[in-house]
Design a protein that fits this description.
Layout (H helix, E strand, L loop, with lengths): L1 H80 L4 H32 L1
Helix pairs in contact: 1-2
């Protein structure tokens, strides 16, 4: 009777040990998966935050250029055309901003192409 009882305890210990180890392995796999997902999220978050901050500074720079161009037209173009220079001033402003945007976009695309080739 004592040996049978001891054998049953041994079997129960073995089963408990096996179940605990299986649970640990499953938990370990889930933990690693969560860790990988957290790292991926951190990279994406940093990337998106960098884009957002860069876009914000780009907007501030664009607004500064906007004010500079308006002031330039007000000081140098409007006196040349007189009081009725509203349409002409806006036309010159629109053309200048368009040319500047095309130039900057072209230069940035050249830089992006070079980086992609490397």
């Amino acid at each position: 009777m004592g040996q049978k009882f001891s054998l049953e305890i041994g079997i129960w210990k073995f089963l408990a040990y096996t179940i605990i180890n299986m649970a640990k392995e499953k938990t370990k796999g889930v933990h690693n998966k969560i860790k990988k997902e957290a790292q991926k999220f951190k990279k994406q978050f940093s990337s998106q935050l960098l884009k957002l901050v860069t876009s914000g500074f780009g907007l501030v720079a664009a607004l500064a250029w906007n004010e500079l161009i308006k002031e330039f037209i007000k000081i140098y173009i409007q006196p040349f055309f007189g009081q009725s220079s509203g349409f002409v001033s806006l036309l010159i402003y629109a053309l200048f901003v368009t040319l500047l945007a095309v130039f900057v976009t072209y230069q940035l695309s050249k830089i992006a192409r070079k980086e992609k080739e490397e």
